[in-house]
Amino acid sequence: MKRVYLYDTTLRDGAQQEGISFRVSDKLKITQKLDDLGIDYIEGGWPGANPKDTEFFARASDLKLKTAVVVAFGSTRRVDVKVDEDAGLKTLVQCGAKAANIVGKTWDRQVKQVLETSLENNLAVISESIAFLKSKGLTVFFDAEHFFDGFKSNPKYAINALLAASKGGADCLVLCDTNGGTLPSEAASIISTIGKKVRSPLGIHAHNDSEMAVAVTLAAVENGVTHVEGTMNGYGERCGNANLCSIIPALQLKMGIKCITTAQLSRISDISHLVAEVANLPPISNLPYVGSNAFLHKAGLHVSAISKWRESYQHIDPKSVGNNPKVVVSELSGKSNIIFKAKELGIPLHPHGKEARQILEQIKQLENRGFLYEDADASFEMLLLRSMPGYKPPFTLVDYMVVIERHRRLPAAYDIGAQFLAEATIKVKVDDKLMHTASEGNGPVNALDRALRKALLEFYPGLAKVDLLDYKVRILEGNSGTGSLVRVSIESGNSKVQWRTVGSSTNIIESSWLALYDAMEYFLLKIDKKHRK
Amino acid sequence: MKRVYLYDTTLRDGAQQEGISFRVSDKLKITQKLDDLGIDYIEGGWPGANPKDTEFFARASDLKLKTAVVVAFGSTRRVDVKVDEDAGLKTLVQCGAKAANIVGKTWDRQVKQVLETSLENNLAVISESIAFLKSKGLTVFFDAEHFFDGFKSNPKYAINALLAASKGGADCLVLCDTNGGTLPSEAASIISTIGKKVRSPLGIHAHNDSEMAVAVTLAAVENGVTHVEGTMNGYGERCGNANLCSIIPALQLKMGIKCITTAQLSRISDISHLVAEVANLPPISNLPYVGSNAFLHKAGLHVSAISKWRESYQHIDPKSVGNNPKVVVSELSGKSNIIFKAKELGIPLHPHGKEARQILEQIKQLENRGFLYEDADASFEMLLLRSMPGYKPPFTLVDYMVVIERHRRLPAAYDIGAQFLAEATIKVKVDDKLMHTASEGNGPVNALDRALRKALLEFYPGLAKVDLLDYKVRILEGNSGTGSLVRVSIESGNSKVQWRTVGSSTNIIESSWLALYDAMEYFLLKIDKKHRK
Hints:
Oligomer: homodimer
Largest interface: A-B, 117 and 115 residues
CATH architecture of the largest domain in chain A: Alpha-Beta Barrel
CATH topology of the largest domain in chain A: TIM Barrel
Shape of chain A: elongated
CATH superfamily of the largest domain in chain A: Aldolase class I
């Protein structure tokens, strides 16, 4: 069976993405996880370029990696120094990595206009730089920058540049689509030409500027490339790099090329999310294979079909990549979604009974009033539970009042500079006991949230550990200005679990109240059920 | 030159994306913009499936479209009714659209297990349904659901299903990669086989589950397909649909296939952002071609290279798609932006004077607190005006108070069913006169807005004609829950002109006040300046 080597550059090229800034400890953590995933080569950074990258390589040599090799990135020598006097190359030798990847120019115009040297000298630069690193015992990759553009401009020179790298002893010639503008069919035809002229193993390094980095990569493999460079979640500058989280499953499950074990593949979703977490970026829900919505079913037609035959609307088994199918309910969806979902939640609903129809009707009415259940599982579950006979709420609202005042005699508040006050009072009943509390807050919803907790904590001390993790507001009818419907979505959680609720009204305070109410009640009924004081 | 027809399904398949819920007015607005872009066919929804889609088609026939044709979506007839008694097909005929797209099954196993009918009956269902719609004078597209999976399972049957559609008179047979699992090379080889057996024009409809919807679409075009279905920004269920914002530039700029004019292509970035705005989704910055980071250059090697040769790190000219290269913005370029902008507004600022620097400083501080001026020209202009010597405001705020009450003794309010009240009082000064007014509203901001107008109308009757056209809320620090910073953006307008303002605070009422205040003052100073009573 054909072997394809996986080369990850999340820590170097991926870190070029706006908003990513890895600490050394982040890089070490990701390296460990990529080794768990079975990645062959992990490019850790450009040692010497900044102190963080230098420190990474010093510490990476202490990591206990099962199979992965850490690679240091650099460039061919400066055009005006001798190879054994080039500071960059020296750093690659000394940094502690056993492999190096150096980038060099293969596009004639780049050599002349950007590098500002002769075409001949650039060939010498390439082969000497590689030969130097090889003589020090390193595995050496050559990143042929702008290779496809170079080939289109001057095929003979682009090939000569590759041959110079071969002559230097490069272990793999990596064809880079640096600007990301190459079509898969173009890449395929160029690579099959190259394969006939160059005998060294070939690699591919694609960027996503045409939304085809994954396709270019797979087209390259179909045409003989055996080394694939990419990043986790497709992170990278501009539109990102080729996404290993899409490439690996395609190689394994669709092209029959085994790179990692089945067990490793089933961890790819988790590791994708972990990398997002370390990068401090929200996980992208619609990412192929690994996103939380990758196997989501919303249309009633589809849900009814998958209840008959699970694979009918799935291109692979989600479990193979450690993901799960997800069914959501919405006004567009049919009764079958509700029954399916209720079953998942352990609430039996008869397929032909009137309950399922009534609940669907209620959801349609509520969605007409701005509620949206597809992203608010906990609110959906509360709606189901409240419709069950014998349902007993842990508390009930009697009244609330919120006052917001901007007054010249108030002190400037909360470092915003405005002189305002937000205060809430609330009355709730727990069993027969009426609690009447008040609280200030740095906004009206914050005040209401605090007053509610004050009222409930005496009975339910577990609430102290519930945090509001996310609070989102969406105006639904933009055209009626400040009189619009306002949808509020809340994510709540404690250290173990998160849940989402929704509320809607023309009054943002009431919308927030409804979402808060569902969030608290859900916690008390489903998560903290034994902890009533 | 080869002609490829563009078919947009943002309003139907795109709307399946989690979080998208278009109103009828949203759909009409998008239809108009897609017509401006030069899209040939715009699929508006599934008439009959829900009241919103039915209303859309009723109203869409009144739109003045330059070239686009609105298409209604539906499915082949039910397997157990006669074709002229099928409710769904009747609705397609009556809805007002001149073209219909019906989905039908071509995968043998789907026919048997999901549709639960015989293979022969399904062929009759396809050809009869299409013939019926053709007999009513419609242009008819056939969406061959799961075509590629069907072909892999039973090529003969899949082809027979297409031939049945041809026999019915379908104008185009659209090969759907419904589950999104097909590789571009597979699609290419299947399509070239089909092209030899089927004479009707072929289309492609790809999903992005393998991150290759754009590549599959282009591979299809390379192999003879002349009709391309996709969505703006790749919106769609699970991992999305084929992204027209990437497909159109590739067809035009890389494959030499002219679908729209150069002028239309240069509007694609703007229209992509507008669709995101209407969908109420944040624009995706790393989207190919149209994303704000698509041509971003970080400081260093690339920036120095592009200053020598602009195309050295760009795969196309960003202007061709209405986008701009983005280079790290320095403090200096910030100041020149402000001077440029002030000049546009007729406010002279000396390039080296301290005013420009002070204003830049103030903007930086305010943006740190959540204000965003790039989309709030009127707030920016008010900020400039207020910094001018001798500035005299048309009114000043003294105090306001807002009370929101949910009380069991209140009547159920505003058809939302909740028993709440929102009431505001405000004190403002106009010259030396103190106005103290009060108003209810259907939410706190609406109450405040009404109270303010009550106070000012006596002096400025023109305010009666100012509407709040749009009101948006964005939570800026998701992790501190209900204590987050809240940015409010308002669009105001009268029959002639619209303007946008912004406010930010942890208190949503205060944020709304700040945006309202700018909006009213801007109107009085810049638009209605002569109409003081």
